[in-house]
Design a protein that fits this description.
The protein is α/β, with parallel strands linked by helices and about 375 residues long. It has one domain: Alpha-Beta Barrel (TIM Barrel). The chain contains 13 helices and 14 strands. The strands form three sheets. The protein has an eight-stranded parallel β-barrel with strand order 1-2-3-4-7-8-9-14, surrounded by six helices. Strand 5 and strand 6 form a beta hairpin. The mean pLDDT is about 95. It comes from Azoarcus indigens.
C-alpha cells in the first residue's frame, strides 16, 4: 500500500495566525498555491466549504487550469442544489480537469452555518437526506436511460445526464462526519472516510466502527486523517514554533473579540476537544492546544517535531489503516513547500520500507 498526501487550497492567504486581508479572492495566490502543492509532490488538494466562502466548483476549475498532475477534492454539501444538477456539474468538472476530481460530502455539523443557506433540517435529518442524495447522484452518473424518482426529500421525472464522469463508474466519494448517523451513511456510499487528527486510540475506534458498517454492505473503505504538521530542524525548535503559533492565535482571537472558542456542535469537534482533556500533548507528537483554543474548529491538531519524527508519527496512523494524510500548515503556502522537501518523501520512503518487511498491521 502507498500513501497519498492531500493539501488544502484557499482563495486568499489565511490561517489562525494570518487574518484574511483584502478581498476574498486573490487569483495570484490561488495559482501559486496550486502550483506549490503540485511541485511539492502532493496528490490532491481539498477546497473546503463554509456558507460564506467563494464557490468551490469555480475555484477548482481555475486552479486546475494552471496544473497538470495534481488532483482535486471538492467539499460539497447536499441539500442546496438538486442532486441531478450536482451530478452534471461534477461530471462536467471532471471532464474539464481531465479526470482529476473527487467529491468530499459534508452533510453539515453546525446549525448556524447551515441556516445561512436556508437549511433548517436537524442533524440526523441532514444525513438521511445525504443518503438519498448520493443514491441519486451515483445513479445519474451511471444510468444509460432517464429515470423517475419519488423519495422522501427529492422527486423528479426523467432524470438523466448526457455527461458522465471521466472516472468510471463515478467520482471517488470522500465522506466526513463522526456521529452514528454519519457513519451509517458512510458505510453505504463512501470510498474514503475522512477523520480529523484525533489520537491513536480514537482513530482506531472510528476506523473499526466505519469498517463494521461498510461490511454490512460488502464494501471496503479507505481512511484519511488530517493534521497540521509543525516542523523544524530540531524537536526543541519545533515546540518553540508551536508555542509561538498558540500565542499568536490567542492574541489575534482576543483582538477580534473571540477569546477561547465555544465548542462547535459537530461530533468531530467534540472528539477533537476530548483528545485535549488530558493535556496539550498525546501519543508521540499530537498537539491539541489550537483545537482547544478554537473550540475544535476545522482540522486544528498538529504533529510537532523534525520531519523525521513527524514521518514516524504518521506511520503509527498508517499501521491503523490510514492511507491518506491531509496536511496543511499555519503558514499555508510556505509550509506546503516545506512539506515537499522532506516530510512527504520521508513518509513515503518509510511506508515502502515497512511494507517491504511485511510489518503493516491489519488495524
Amino acid at each position: 500500500m502507498s500513501v497519498d498526501f492531500f493539501g488544502m487550497i484557499y482563495t486568499q492567504k489565511q490561517s489562525e495566525i494570518h487574518p484574511a486581508e483584502g478581498g476574498p479572492i486573490d487569483r495570484d495566490y490561488v495559482r501559486d498555491f496550486a502550483l506549490a502543492h503540485e511541485n511539492a509532490g502532493f496528490d490532491r488538494i481539498l477546497y473546503p466549504l463554509h456558507s460564506t466562502t467563494p464557490d468551490g466548483f469555480l475555484t477548482l476549475a481555475y486552479a486546475a487550469s494552471f496544473t497538470k498532475r495534481i488532483h482535486f477534492l471538492l467539499a460539497h454539501r447536499p441539500g442546496f442544489i438538486a442532486p441531478t444538477l450536482a451530478a452534471r456539474k461534477l461530471a462536467t468538472l471532471d471532464h474539464f480537469t481531465g479526470g482529476r476530481v473527487a467529491v468530499h460530502i459534508i452533510s453539515g455539523g453546525d446549525d448556524v452555518d447551515q441556516r445561512r443557506d436556508g437549511d433548517f433540517l436537524d442533524h440526523d435529518e441532514r444525513y438521511a437526506r445525504t443518503d438519498e442524495y448520493l443514491e441519486i447522484v451515483r445513479r445519474i452518473w451511471t444510468s444509460d436511460a432517464p429515470f423517475d424518482h419519488q423519495g422522501r426529500y427529492y422527486q423528479f421525472e426523467g432524470g438523466y445526464s448526457e455527461v458522465k464522469p471521466v472516472q468510471k463508474p463515478y467520482l471517488p466519494i470522500f465522506f466526513g462526519g463522526s456521529s452514528a448517523a454519519a457513519i451509517q451513511v458512510a458505510g453505504k456510499h463512501a470510498d474514503a472516510f475522512a477523520l480529523w487528527g484525533e489520537n491513536l486510540a480514537q482513530t482506531r475506534d472510528t476506523i473499526a466502527r466505519v469498517r463494521a458498517e461498510a461490511a454490512k454492505h460488502g464494501r471496503d473503505i479507505r481512511f484519511s486523517v488530517s493534521f497540521r504538521p509543525i516542523l523544524a530542524d530540531t524537536e526543541a525548535a519545533a515546540w518553540e514554533r508551536a508555542g509561538h503559533i498558540l500565542n499568536e492565535t490567542r492574541r489575534l482571537r482576543a483582538a477580534q473579540g473571540l477569546g477561547q472558542g465555544a465548542p462547535l456542535q459537530s461530533e468531530g469537534a467534540r472528539r477533537l476537544l476530548a483528545a485535549a482533556t488530558d493535556g496539550d500533548r498525546a501519543d508521540k507528537r499530537l498537539w491539541t492546544a489550537i483545537a482547544r483554543e478554537t473550540g475544535g474548529r476545522s482540522n486544528s491538531t498538529a504533529l510537532v517535531g523534525t520531519p523525521e519524527q513527524v514521518a514516524e508519527a504518521l506511520l503509527d496512523y498508517y499501521e491503523l489503516g490510514v492511507t491518506t494524510f491531509l496536511i496543511r500548515g499555519f503558514d499555508p503556502l510556505e509550509d506546503a513547500i516545506d512539506y515537499g522537501r522532506k516530510l512527504i518523501p520521508l513518509t513515503r520512503e518509510l511506508v515502502a520500507e515497512r511494507d517491504a518487511r511485511g510489518l503493516r498491521k491489519a488495524g
